[in-house]
Amino acid sequence: MSNLTASRSESSFVNAARKISSTAISKSSAIKKDTNRTTNTSNKKVSAIQPRENSEESSDKDEAKDFLKSDLAAKLRVYDPTCKPPKKTQKFSSTPNNMTSLLASSEIQTISGFDRSAYASGKTVLVLENGDMKHINLAEEQPKMVSMNLVGRVTSFSVSNDFTIFAVAIEEENVAKVMVYSLELDIGEEKAVYGTQYLSQEMCISQAAEIIACLSVLEERVHLQTFDVKDGINNCSGNIIAEKVPMNWQITFCPADEGVLCALGGGTAYLLRASGGHIENFSTILLPGVLCHDWANDVNIMFGNKTGLLHIYRETIPLDVVDIRKLSEDILTDSVNVEIISIRSTSRRLACQTGSGIILLFDSNAESGPDWGSCRAFIISDFRLKSYHSLSFDFADENLLYDSGNALQTISIQFLSKLNSFNGDVVSVRHCSRIIGARATESTIITLDDTGLFAVFSKFTNRVLCSSRVPDAFFFTVLATSHKLLVVTKTHVESYTVMLDGLKAAESIFEKELIMDTKQMLFSRDNKFLMFLTKSDNVFCVDLSSRKILWSTDYKLHFFQSMGYSNATLLLLNQKFIVSRIKHGKDLSNVNMHASDIGFSITSELIEGNNNFVFITADCGELLCSAASALDEPYVVKSKIKRIRITTIRAFDDELLVGYENGSVGILKLTQQVPEDVNDIILCNFNGVINLKSLLRDINAERNLIKETTEKFLDLFTTRTNNELQQIKTEFDETMRNYKERVKTFEKDFNESETIKQKTIANLKGLYEDESTHQKRKYETMIEDQIRKSFRQLEEKQNEIKAIKEDAERKHREMIGSFHITEKQLNIQAENHLKKTIKDLKLQIIKKHDDLSALREEKEQNTLKLKENHREDAELLEAEIWALKATCVQLNEQRDHIGDENIKINSMLRIAKQQIEHMRDENKRQEVEVQNLREIIQKLHNKENEITRAYTKVKKNFSIQTKQYDELVQQNHRWKRRMQDLEARIEQLAGCVYDPRRLEHSVLSLLAKSQNVDLDKRYKAPI
User: What stretch or stretches form a coiled coil here (predicted)?
Assistant: First the structure.
């Protein structure tokens, strides 16, 4: 592949597209001039084109030859699956002479797809596929999809809820019947066969697997029948009369009453009662928009509609409406399709699937129904909405089988989270649209539909190896390695590697938009020639070794649908089953391959052949086959796929692949591989026969001994079981009494602790309020004492200042009287002294003013922490200072006395400062007391939190005890159910006393039940 460059590939494909279009449409006349015309028919021209050089008239012809000689032909030859080294031919017992008889007895078998599916016993899955019933055991090391090879066409099937039997409805040569098979020992073991009046479209089996109900849709009514599995008789029959009979129906049995059924069709639910040989409709529920239903528990029915609502009814009484959007609001938004298309309910699980591919899972109970709070969502990738989607749980309700449209998958639901989006294990794959391509190798079959979905199937196990989608793919072929595909889309050609997880792109050949007028390309069986059929009915044949056109044919108004190749002959098919044949460039006579069995208003579509057979498809879905040596003797090939149009066929030496419009793929075996040395008779000596008889006798004796031992064991087991059940019941009653007493004691202790807690909280609140009131009063008293003390100090200072003033006036008068000098001298001395004193006082006043300003600022900063009375004190002190200044100005001559007064004032200020410092210390002490009070309050909060935690612990213990009590109640219900099941089995065993085979089977079943009862998770709940 590396030697094919992208540029070379692009140019070859583009030139090819343009030249074939011009050659086939606009310049066909020029090609006709260069061809050797024949006169066999008036509208056909066959010629052997020979290459000529230097000819002006052959320019158009040369362009066509250039296209046909381009690398396209060589590349397609390289990637064609038939271009492999010659293989060693396999030896078959059949010969070409008896090939027709072998094929006449063969039938087209389906190899892919599924219509309906369900879990059987264990990990076995039952699949209904185009009328064929298949099964696959997923527990095997190499699971295989095995057909049951039932005679006839299967229309429906149903599996019992206990996984003991399953029933199928079969149409065999216009005869309808119901067959019942056992699932306990061998899945193909036939148990009973019932003949039915009409073909059943829907079936269901009762809860105890004793009654089978069949529903048949007729033109003006719906017919129902019930069959007794045990007695093998038709119990009841009846009809549902409706104005307009819908085609899609569902039918289910009531788990609590096997005589009550629910049939849903056309938005109406019909509640039916089967008794006395008749089935009558005793109630009807109108449910517009409802698509599916199932029983939510033993007596309630659940319906799912298009708006995402689950309606729960008990008969005709509506009980509840559940909106699934509210259960999973994260993913079920307004843009998501929430119509409920499928519901499946068991005693432990409920699953409902929406139209957007989302599956909601709920835990359920046989008595109370689903637990809506346990919702888990599973998102399906690559979902395709179909008319019917399968949902099925296995026996243990631990695995879910679901249908994504294209694939049937299983998933374990034990450990799913709230939201899951991964893929399950693929069981089978189907195509939802028409098949456009099919190829086969030695070990695989590859199919392609028009949506680009590839599916690879194994020939050995009939399982799907992988599936993948390639958008816009319309053609593919298998490369020589058988592990790679060459895929052609609208814009590019790529090779893909087949892997288990899908197709992986390996290499891009080229990418460019292709505009091609070619309708079909075909290789010869020996890979020497390549034929082209255009949309204008032009046919070209190219020699791949020389890349030259060997011959060409121009047909007019033949409207060829397809072409095939058989025995070196090119076959061209029109719409009227007329086959035109060309061999080595020569036109042979036409052959009519119409068969009268399919009617005369049918048109033909496809033709395909190999060295022995030629096949033609009709638009009615039938496949015609004739021997290559006798094309005018076709016959209709049998097929399990009825009345579906065939869209593609591909013939090989030993098989034919058939693709249908609905996505189904069938295979027709053309040869039968039989071993060379086969002995039909095996001879044995006499002693060997005697030994075999002796062995048979010993086996019969051992069987009789087992019967006797089984009867004894059954009696012993019955007696011991009754004693154990009685003992268990007594212990359970005693345990229940003890638990009730313990619950009462817990309630009493809880009430007492609740009362103590309330009292403790009330006492703590009282202590807290008393302590807060005491501290508040204490701080208020301290502040009031401080304010009173400040007022007393201020009053004392005012009295001292007044005494100083009086003393100063007195001394001034004494000094005036003591003066004996003249008034002039005194004036002069007084003026000089006054000036000097004034000057000194001014300096001192300025200095004192600065000191007083600093003190005042410090005092103001300190007094801001106190109340407004402290600021008033500072203002009074400042007023006194100014009064002292005025006195000093008036008493100029009393400098020494004024200095003494200033010293006293400074001492008073120092005292005031000391008082302020004392108040600061007092405030710090008060802050320490407040911090201690806060610590006490924090301790009280911690005690309150401890009390709260103790209350929470007591409440949690109470909830645990309540949960244990509920589990004991549930265990009691389980033991009752187990006793009922055991009594039913014993009654069933009593009815089989006179039938040794059924007695042996029932005893073995009871022994298996007794051995596995301790392993059943449903009975392992803790006591």
Answer: 692-749, 787-814, 838-992
Q: In what order do the strands lie in the sheet with 484-488?
A: 475-478, 484-488, 492-499, 502-511
Confidence at residue 733, expressed as pLDDT on a 0 to 100 scale: 86
Which residue is associated with the tokens 């008319």? Answer: 387
The residue ranking higher by pLDDT, 241 or 1011, is: 241
Q: Whole-angstrom Cα distance, residue 263 to residue 225?
A: 12
Write down all domains in the chain, each with its CATH number in brackets: 118-286 (2.130.10.10), 291-411 (2.130.10.10), 736-815+823-980 (no CATH)
Of the listed ranges 423-432, 567-576, 721-730, 862-871, the least confidently predicted one is 862-871
pLDDT of residue 698: 58
751 CB contacts (<8 Å, ≥6 apart)? none
Listing from the earlier edge strand, what are the strands of the sheet with 604-609? 604-609, 613-618, 623-627, 635-636
CA dist 383 and 337 (Å) reads: 12
C-alpha radius of gyration, the chain, whole number:
53
- CA–CA separation, 60 vs 418, rounded Å? 69
Q: Is the pTM of this model over 0.85?
A: no
Bridge partners, 400 (sequence order): 393, 411
Cα distance between residue 613 and residue 286, in whole Å: 57
Between CA 239 and CA 280 the distance in angstroms is 8
The confidence score (pLDDT) of residue 21 equals 38
- The residue that leads in pLDDT, 477 or 37, is 477
Q: Which residues fall within 8 angstroms of residue 539, CB to CB, at 6 or more apart? A: 531, 532, 533, 552, 553, 554, 555, 563, 570, 572, 582
Q: Output the DSSP codes for 483-510.
A: SEEEEE-SSEEEEEEEETTEEEEEEEEE
Q: In sequence order, what DSSP letters do the residues of 348-374 get, joined into one string?
A: SEEEEEETTSEEEEEEEETTTEEEEEE
DSSP track, 589-621? --EE---GGG-SS--EEEEEE-SSEEEEEETTS
Return d(Cα 396, Cα 348) in angstroms, integer.
Answer: 9
Q: Which of 500, 474, 358, 440 is nearest to 658 (CA)?
A: 440
The H or E element containing residue 927 is helix 895-990
d(CA 669, CA 444): 15
Q: Which of 196, 211, 193, 113 is nearest to 150 (CA)?
A: 193
Residue 658 pLDDT: 92
Which residues partner with 141 through β-bridges?
A: none
Question: 3-state DSSP call for residue 764?
Answer: helix
Q: What is the pLDDT of residue 387?
A: 83
Are 304 and 343 in contact by the 8 Å Cβ rule? The answer is: yes
Which pLDDT belongs to residue 866? Answer: 67
Taking the CA atoms of 549, 554, 555 and 560 in sequence, report the sign of the dihedral they define: positive
Going by DSSP bridges, is the β-strand pair 638-639/107-110 parallel, antiparallel, or unpaired? parallel
Which of 58-72, 527-541, 745-759 has the weakest average pLDDT? 58-72
User: How many CA atoms lie within 13 Å of 270's alpha carbon, on the beta-carbon side?
Assistant: 23
Q: Where are the beta strands (DSSP E) in 130-232?
A: 132-137, 146-147, 153-159, 165-172, 175-182, 190-195, 202-205, 211-217, 221-228
Q: Quote the distance between the C-alpha of residue 251 and its chain's center.
A: 27
Cα–Cα dist 629/333, whole Å: 65
* C-alpha to C-alpha distance for 686 and 224, rounded to whole angstroms: 57
C-alpha of 901 from chain center: 103
For residue 484, what are the CA distances in angstroms to 86, 480, 488, 776, 1018?
A: 19, 8, 13, 94, 50
Alpha carbon distances (Å) from 901 to 803, 851, 887: 11, 16, 10
What does the DSSP assignment read for 512-539?
------EEEEEE-TTSSEEEEEETTSEE
Helix, strand, coil percentages (3-state) for the chain, rounded to 5, are 35, 30, 30
Give the residue among 346, 340, 386, 335 at the shortest CA–CA distance from 359. Answer: 340
